[in-house]
Design goal:
The protein has 313 residues and is mostly helical. It folds into 3 domains: 6-71, no CATH class; 111-225, no CATH class; 238-307, no CATH class. Helix content is 53%, strand content 4%. The chain is built from 12 helices and 6 strands. Strands 1-4 form a two-stranded antiparallel ribbon. It has a two-stranded antiparallel sheet with strand order 2-3. Strands 5-6 form a two-stranded antiparallel ribbon.
Length: 313
């Protein structure tokens, strides 16, 4: 049996389709398959050693060839390198600077305010704003600019934004502590924890707790607990006593005044207290002068011991 010759080169066919494998010549040139087969049979009849039997065999093979061509699927897409479609657009979420088709255009993951704040830090003063940190109007925006500075490895922008973050410490100490801990600014987190120990844990927002992480959260809670326990232990110690006050009849009244002040202090005791509240004690009435000296020494001892308690993580 003989078949029309074929080609293995992927190319556009005359009937508008595409092929990726063996293609009959009659499809490449848009000819009729029966004409091609008849031409082949005519050439075989004209050649020596062929006759009517060869032509009959070729005629029997024609239905099989036509059936095979009808069952062969026609590709719907062009082969690689021929009419390539344009590249897909970038994804909606951009995690790194991505060049566009225009060589002067890039996609960046930062929003416009973040990018403006970052550029104002790396360019000379006055290029965008009178002062480089003017665009950093919130703590959240400052944190995003710090993240951009870390991503672009800009030491200048990182230093300026980090120093600017400390300006929010008085109003939002726990948030600054959380952000400084997240970025591993050790000295800034220690300084912020000194102001944050006075904020009750019930006032910490969910976003702040998530940013803190387990480690930073546990360290701040441990600091608050250590200070509260130490302060209670300090104020619940007995008053100072000497030989005179041990047998003085007026000492009992002064001890009642001291215990009342301690109970009042414990009701509003905060972890950031330095026990200066003990200085505001009501000493009205008659008291022994020597016993008053012992009370003063007791208050002095409490103030000194409170200063020895840890104040930062």
């Amino acid at each position: 049996m003989s078949y029309p010759p074929s080609s293995v080169t992927p190319r556009r066919l005359a009937d508008g389709g595409y092929s990726y494998g063996f293609v009959p010549v009659w499809r490449l040139h848009g000819t009729n398959p029966s004409v091609t087969v008849q031409a082949q049979n005519a050439s075989q009849q004209a050649s020596p050693g062929t006759g009517a039997q060869g032509a009959l065999n070729n005629l029997f093979c024609l239905p099989k060839l036509l059936s095979h061509l009808r069952s062969s699927p026609t590709p719907t897409s062009p082969p690689p390198g021929i009419d390539d479609p344009p590249p897909l657009p970038p994804k909606d979420t951009v995690t790194a600077p991505t060049p566009r088709t225009n060589p002067y255009t890039w996609l960046v993951p930062e929003t416009a305010p973040v990018l403006e704040g970052f550029l104002s830090l790396i360019y000379p003063s006055g290029t965008f704003t009178p002062f480089p940190t003017d665009p950093l109007i919130t703590l959240e925006l400052t944190g995003r600019v710090i993240r951009a500075a870390l991503g672009y490895q800009s030491a200048k922008a990182l230093a300026l934004a980090r120093d600017h973050m400390s300006g929010f410490m008085m109003d939002r100490p726990v948030d600054v502590y959380a952000m400084a801990s997240f970025f591993k600014f050790t000295d800034l987190s220690k300084l912020a924890s000194q102001h944050g120990i006075g904020v009750p844990s019930s006032d910490w927002g969910g976003d702040t707790r998530a940013l803190l992480g387990r480690g930073a959260l546990a360290r701040l809670e441990e600091l608050q607990g250590a200070r509260m326990g130490g302060l209670r232990e300090i104020v619940n110690k007995e008053m100072e006593v000497d030989e005179h006050s041990a047998g003085c009849g007026k000492r009992g009244r002064l001890e009642e005044v001291w215990k009342a002040k301690v109970r009042e202090l414990e009701l509003g005791l905060r972890p950031d207290s330095e026990l200066f509240e003990l200085l505001a004690i009501d000493l009205s009435g008659e008291h022994c002068e020597n016993c008053l000296v012992q009370l003063g020494m007791t208050i002095q001892r409490c103030l000194y011991e409170a200063r020895e308690l840890p104040r930062s993580v």
